[in-house]
Specification:
Keywords: Cell projection, Cilium, Coiled coil, Cytoplasm, Cytoskeleton, Flagellum
InterPro entries: RIB43A
Coiled coil: 52-118
Number of helices: 8
Subunit structure: Microtubule inner protein component of sperm flagellar doublet microtubules.
Strand content: under 5%
Number of strands: 0
Largest sheet: none
Shape: rod-shaped
Radius of gyration: 71 Å
Helix content: over 70%
Structural class: mainly alpha
Order of helices and strands: HHHHHHHH
Subcellular location: Cytoplasm, Cytoskeleton, Flagellum axoneme
Length: 363
Amino acid sequence: MGYSIFPSLQMYKLGLSADPKEVAAIEARRNREKDRQSRFFNVRNRVMGVDVEALNNQVEEKKLREATEQSKDAAYGTKQVQYDLVAQMLEKEEAERARRLAKKIQDFREQKQQLKNRREFDPWDPDRLQREFPVYLNDSDTFYGPASMQCFFGEDLERATNLRMQQEQFRYSLEGQLQEQQQAKVDEKCADMLSDQLHLAINMQAAHLARLEESCRMAMMFANANANKAQAAEVAERQRLEHQRQQEANLMEIQNQITSDLLTENPQVAQNSTAPHRVLPYCWKGMTPEQRAAIRKDQETQCREKEAKHQAEQALDTEWESQTIHLAQAALELEEQERELCAEFRRGLGSFNQQLAKEQKAQ
């Protein structure tokens, strides 16, 4: 079981949320630092730079694309307004048709579905049949039950009254149908008139919207033409300025080349600042006439010295040859003398030996 180093921190943990402004500021600083690092570590942009002409072309293309999108949005907005007006008119027509249908239904209910003409059983009044009079009535009795045997099948005591009521009901129904037909014709005429007026209004509105769309299109074409002219003029001016700048740069470069140390062959450029007796190989343009004259003078002096040395060597060689010849002659003379001495020594030795031999023989 381990022990915590900071028990108070574990015991009293505070759930404090970070400040949104501080978090946003930290995030903004991080983003700026990332952008700066991306610009700094991008070797291509740092060394070669950015293609300004390509960026300008991209900006022009973006502006043209935005103008095209704005024109499309304007056209779509005009069409949307037209469609909204048509939809509103259709909604009004549908609402009017629904209102007329509801009015017809209400009129039919008021005329044909009254309480007095209803023959269905009323669930809200179940005792209605008990309160009605029986089928057979006379002057003395007011009520006869089912077992009174007073009403038989097929017997109709009020046939004339029922026929008269049926005729009145039929006449009333026929009059209602005639009124409904007349009202339907009137409503149909009104609906046709309203439909014609609606179609006329729709056509007029469509023509007005078409004129507005045509005027918007013409204005858009005029604006695009002006924008294209302005863009063409701007491009031409930019090309002229670029050509002028290029010409000025070329003239400046030619002037710099003419007056530069490369063509003037300034010998001071090749002088080494740290070692005056040395030259810079990549800037050296050759020796000056004075240097060449001094070198030629040194060469002539060296030639004379070499010739004198050669003559001295020849004289020394001649002397050595003469001495060698004298030495050879002396050696020959010494050899001759040595041979003569040897011969004389041999002769003396022979005579001495002969004398000794004679002496030995004499003994």
